[in-house]
Amino acid sequence: MPGLIALIGDYNASVTAHVAIPPALELAARALQVDVEPVWIPTTELAGAAAVRALRAYQGIWCVPASPYANTEGTISAISLARVEGVPFLGTCGGFQHALIEYFRNVLGATGVAHAELDPHAEHPLISRLSCSLVEVTGTIRIAPGSLAHRLYGADSVEEAYHCNYDLNPEFVSLLRGRSDLHVEGRDESGDIRIIRLPHHPFFVATLFQPERSSLKGLVHPLIRGFVSAAVLS
User: How is the chain split into domains, by residue range?
Assistant: First the structure.
Protein backbone atom coordinates (compact mmCIF):
# COMPACT_ATOMS: atom_id res chain seq x y z
CA MET A 1 0.00 0.00 0.00
CA PRO A 2 1.33 3.45 -0.86
CA GLY A 3 1.83 6.01 1.87
CA LEU A 4 -0.98 8.55 1.74
CA ILE A 5 0.15 12.18 1.84
CA ALA A 6 -2.52 14.83 2.46
CA LEU A 7 -1.86 18.03 0.52
CA ILE A 8 -3.67 20.77 2.43
CA GLY A 9 -4.47 23.61 0.07
CA ASP A 10 -6.76 24.82 -2.68
CA TYR A 11 -5.36 23.36 -5.91
CA ASN A 12 -4.78 25.79 -8.75
CA ALA A 13 -3.07 24.58 -11.92
CA SER A 14 -1.66 28.08 -12.50
CA VAL A 15 0.35 27.89 -9.24
CA THR A 16 3.83 26.58 -10.02
CA ALA A 17 4.26 25.02 -6.58
CA HIS A 18 1.03 23.05 -6.92
CA VAL A 19 2.20 21.58 -10.21
CA ALA A 20 5.62 20.80 -8.74
CA ILE A 21 4.52 19.04 -5.52
CA PRO A 22 3.27 15.66 -6.83
CA PRO A 23 6.42 15.04 -8.93
CA ALA A 24 8.58 16.22 -6.00
CA LEU A 25 6.97 13.54 -3.83
CA GLU A 26 7.34 10.94 -6.58
CA LEU A 27 11.03 11.72 -7.05
CA ALA A 28 11.63 11.39 -3.31
CA ALA A 29 9.63 8.16 -3.11
CA ARG A 30 11.52 6.66 -6.04
CA ALA A 31 14.84 7.52 -4.40
CA LEU A 32 13.68 5.77 -1.22
CA GLN A 33 12.15 2.86 -3.16
CA VAL A 34 8.72 3.38 -1.65
CA ASP A 35 5.30 4.33 -3.00
CA VAL A 36 3.37 7.47 -2.09
CA GLU A 37 -0.04 8.73 -3.09
CA PRO A 38 -0.60 12.47 -2.77
CA VAL A 39 -4.23 13.43 -2.09
CA TRP A 40 -5.34 17.04 -2.43
CA ILE A 41 -7.54 18.16 0.47
CA PRO A 42 -9.26 21.46 -0.35
CA THR A 43 -9.37 23.60 2.76
CA THR A 44 -13.13 23.94 2.30
CA GLU A 45 -13.35 20.24 3.22
CA LEU A 46 -11.80 20.92 6.64
CA ALA A 47 -14.97 22.37 8.11
CA GLY A 48 -15.53 20.83 11.51
CA ALA A 49 -13.61 18.62 13.92
CA ALA A 50 -14.64 15.34 12.26
CA ALA A 51 -13.19 16.43 8.91
CA VAL A 52 -9.90 17.37 10.55
CA ARG A 53 -9.76 14.11 12.52
CA ALA A 54 -10.10 12.24 9.22
CA LEU A 55 -6.53 13.36 8.45
CA ARG A 56 -5.37 10.68 10.89
CA ALA A 57 -5.74 8.25 7.97
CA TYR A 58 -2.77 9.88 6.24
CA GLN A 59 0.87 9.05 6.83
CA GLY A 60 1.97 12.64 6.20
CA ILE A 61 0.50 16.14 5.92
CA TRP A 62 1.90 18.85 3.66
CA CYS A 63 0.48 22.36 3.99
CA VAL A 64 1.14 23.79 0.54
CA PRO A 65 1.69 27.32 -0.83
CA ALA A 66 -0.85 29.77 -2.27
CA SER A 67 -2.60 31.43 0.63
CA PRO A 68 -4.92 32.95 1.59
CA TYR A 69 -6.62 29.59 1.94
CA ALA A 70 -10.38 29.33 1.41
CA ASN A 71 -10.66 28.05 4.99
CA THR A 72 -7.89 29.47 7.16
CA GLU A 73 -9.18 28.01 10.43
CA GLY A 74 -9.51 24.53 8.93
CA THR A 75 -5.93 24.79 7.68
CA ILE A 76 -4.65 25.79 11.11
CA SER A 77 -6.62 22.92 12.68
CA ALA A 78 -4.96 20.47 10.27
CA ILE A 79 -1.53 21.79 11.27
CA SER A 80 -2.49 21.48 14.93
CA LEU A 81 -3.49 17.85 14.46
CA ALA A 82 -0.15 17.09 12.80
CA ARG A 83 1.76 18.81 15.62
CA VAL A 84 -0.16 17.28 18.51
CA GLU A 85 -0.55 13.76 17.14
CA GLY A 86 2.92 13.36 15.68
CA VAL A 87 1.92 13.09 12.03
CA PRO A 88 4.92 13.90 9.81
CA PHE A 89 4.41 17.45 8.55
CA LEU A 90 5.90 19.70 5.92
CA GLY A 91 4.82 23.31 5.43
CA THR A 92 6.12 25.41 2.56
CA CYS A 93 5.62 29.13 1.90
CA GLY A 94 2.04 29.72 3.12
CA GLY A 95 2.39 26.49 5.09
CA PHE A 96 5.37 28.00 6.93
CA GLN A 97 3.39 31.13 7.75
CA HIS A 98 0.39 29.19 9.06
CA ALA A 99 2.55 26.75 11.02
CA LEU A 100 3.88 29.80 12.88
CA ILE A 101 0.35 31.10 13.46
CA GLU A 102 -0.66 27.70 14.86
CA TYR A 103 2.39 27.59 17.12
CA PHE A 104 1.95 31.13 18.47
CA ARG A 105 -1.76 30.53 19.07
CA ASN A 106 -1.75 27.06 20.56
CA VAL A 107 1.70 26.75 22.14
CA LEU A 108 2.54 30.32 23.15
CA GLY A 109 -1.07 31.29 23.85
CA ALA A 110 -1.04 34.32 21.55
CA THR A 111 -4.61 33.71 20.39
CA GLY A 112 -5.03 37.08 18.73
CA VAL A 113 -2.19 36.83 16.22
CA ALA A 114 -3.09 37.85 12.68
CA HIS A 115 -1.91 37.46 9.09
CA ALA A 116 -1.64 40.80 7.28
CA GLU A 117 -2.88 39.24 4.04
CA LEU A 118 -6.23 38.51 5.73
CA ASP A 119 -6.21 41.43 8.18
CA PRO A 120 -4.31 44.28 6.53
CA HIS A 121 -5.35 46.68 9.31
CA ALA A 122 -3.90 44.57 12.14
CA GLU A 123 -1.63 46.79 14.24
CA HIS A 124 0.91 44.06 14.98
CA PRO A 125 0.35 41.12 12.61
CA LEU A 126 2.39 37.99 13.28
CA ILE A 127 2.78 37.51 9.53
CA SER A 128 3.49 40.85 7.87
CA ARG A 129 4.11 42.02 4.34
CA LEU A 130 7.74 41.90 3.25
CA SER A 131 9.32 45.26 2.53
CA CYS A 132 11.06 43.58 -0.42
CA SER A 133 9.06 40.96 -2.31
CA LEU A 134 10.44 37.43 -2.62
CA VAL A 135 8.28 36.54 -5.63
CA GLU A 136 10.41 34.49 -8.06
CA VAL A 137 13.56 35.19 -6.05
CA THR A 138 16.37 32.74 -5.32
CA GLY A 139 18.56 33.20 -2.26
CA THR A 140 21.13 31.58 -0.01
CA ILE A 141 20.01 29.73 3.11
CA ARG A 142 22.57 29.17 5.85
CA ILE A 143 21.89 25.89 7.63
CA ALA A 144 22.35 25.54 11.40
CA PRO A 145 25.21 23.16 12.25
CA GLY A 146 24.07 19.90 13.83
CA SER A 147 20.44 20.44 12.83
CA LEU A 148 18.18 17.96 11.07
CA ALA A 149 18.25 20.25 8.03
CA HIS A 150 22.06 20.11 8.07
CA ARG A 151 22.00 16.32 8.16
CA LEU A 152 19.48 16.13 5.32
CA TYR A 153 21.19 18.70 3.08
CA GLY A 154 24.73 17.66 3.96
CA ALA A 155 25.74 21.29 3.40
CA ASP A 156 26.32 24.50 5.35
CA SER A 157 24.44 26.65 2.84
CA VAL A 158 22.07 26.07 -0.06
CA GLU A 159 20.24 28.04 -2.75
CA GLU A 160 16.45 27.99 -2.61
CA ALA A 161 13.59 29.58 -4.56
CA TYR A 162 10.79 31.72 -3.13
CA HIS A 163 7.43 32.98 -4.29
CA CYS A 164 6.00 35.04 -1.44
CA ASN A 165 5.21 38.50 -0.16
CA TYR A 166 4.73 37.72 3.55
CA ASP A 167 6.97 36.59 6.40
CA LEU A 168 7.26 36.43 10.19
CA ASN A 169 7.02 39.95 11.59
CA PRO A 170 10.44 40.89 13.09
CA GLU A 171 8.60 42.18 16.19
CA PHE A 172 7.87 38.56 17.19
CA VAL A 173 11.24 36.93 16.47
CA SER A 174 12.52 37.42 20.02
CA LEU A 175 9.72 35.18 21.33
CA LEU A 176 11.32 32.22 19.56
CA ARG A 177 14.83 32.70 20.93
CA GLY A 178 16.11 30.01 23.27
CA ARG A 179 13.05 27.79 22.97
CA SER A 180 13.63 24.06 23.30
CA ASP A 181 10.43 23.09 21.45
CA LEU A 182 11.04 25.06 18.25
CA HIS A 183 14.41 25.30 16.53
CA VAL A 184 15.43 27.69 13.80
CA GLU A 185 17.40 25.53 11.35
CA GLY A 186 17.89 27.91 8.44
CA ARG A 187 18.30 31.64 7.92
CA ASP A 188 18.88 33.82 4.89
CA GLU A 189 21.92 36.05 4.52
CA SER A 190 20.18 38.82 6.46
CA GLY A 191 19.56 36.47 9.37
CA ASP A 192 15.82 36.13 8.75
CA ILE A 193 14.22 32.79 9.68
CA ARG A 194 13.68 30.50 6.71
CA ILE A 195 13.46 26.98 8.21
CA ILE A 196 11.82 25.96 11.47
CA ARG A 197 11.52 22.54 13.07
CA LEU A 198 9.85 21.05 16.12
CA PRO A 199 12.63 18.83 17.51
CA HIS A 200 10.42 16.65 19.73
CA HIS A 201 8.20 15.66 16.79
CA PRO A 202 8.84 12.74 14.40
CA PHE A 203 9.12 15.26 11.54
CA PHE A 204 7.73 18.78 11.63
CA VAL A 205 9.55 21.13 9.27
CA ALA A 206 8.41 24.34 7.62
CA THR A 207 10.17 26.59 5.11
CA LEU A 208 9.35 30.01 3.72
CA PHE A 209 10.93 28.96 0.42
CA GLN A 210 9.47 26.35 -1.94
CA PRO A 211 11.63 23.20 -2.02
CA GLU A 212 9.10 21.52 -4.31
CA ARG A 213 10.42 23.61 -7.21
CA SER A 214 13.42 21.27 -7.33
CA SER A 215 11.19 18.76 -9.14
CA LEU A 216 10.94 21.10 -12.12
CA LYS A 217 14.63 20.29 -12.68
CA GLY A 218 14.13 16.59 -11.98
CA LEU A 219 15.95 16.80 -8.64
CA VAL A 220 15.20 15.02 -5.37
CA HIS A 221 14.98 17.62 -2.61
CA PRO A 222 16.62 16.60 0.70
CA LEU A 223 13.85 18.02 2.89
CA ILE A 224 11.10 16.37 0.86
CA ARG A 225 13.01 13.10 0.91
CA GLY A 226 13.27 13.43 4.70
CA PHE A 227 9.53 14.10 4.94
CA VAL A 228 8.64 11.07 2.80
CA SER A 229 11.03 8.87 4.76
CA ALA A 230 9.45 9.94 8.07
CA ALA A 231 5.94 9.42 6.68
CA VAL A 232 6.41 6.06 4.99
CA LEU A 233 9.43 4.35 6.56
CA SER A 234 9.23 5.36 10.23
Answer: 3-232
Q: Is 229 helix (H, G, I), strand (E, B) or coil?
A: helix
C-alpha R_g of the chain: 16
Choices 2.70.98.40, 3.20.20.450, 3.40.50.10810, 3.40.50.880: CATH for 3-232: 3.40.50.880
Amino acid type, 224: I
In angstroms, the Cα distances linking 68 to 72, 76, 91, 182 are 7, 12, 14, 24
pLDDT at 176: 96
For residue 195, the surrounding DSSP H or E stretch is strand 193-197
Q: In Å, how far are 77, 100, 172, 174 from 108, measured between CA atoms?
A: 16, 10, 11, 13
> How far is the CA of 190 from the CAs of 43, 59, 101, 187, 195, in angstroms?
33, 35, 22, 8, 14
The 10s digit of each residue's pLDDT in 114-165 is 999 999 888 889 999 999 999 999 999 999 999 999 999 999 999 999 999 9
Per the CB < 8 A criterion, the answer to whether 133 and 165 are in contact is yes
- Alpha carbons 211 and 233: distance in angstroms, whole number: 21
Which uninterrupted H or E stretch holds 5?
strand 3-8
Model's pTM, two decimal places? 0.97
Sign of the CA dihedral running 177, 178, 183, 186 = positive
Q: pLDDT-derived band of residue 38, with 50, 70 and 90 as boundaries?
A: very high
Which residues have C-beta within 8 Å of that of residue 45, sequence separation ≥ 6? 51, 74
Determine the Cα–Cα distance for residues 210 and 215; give it in Å rounded to an integer.
Answer: 11
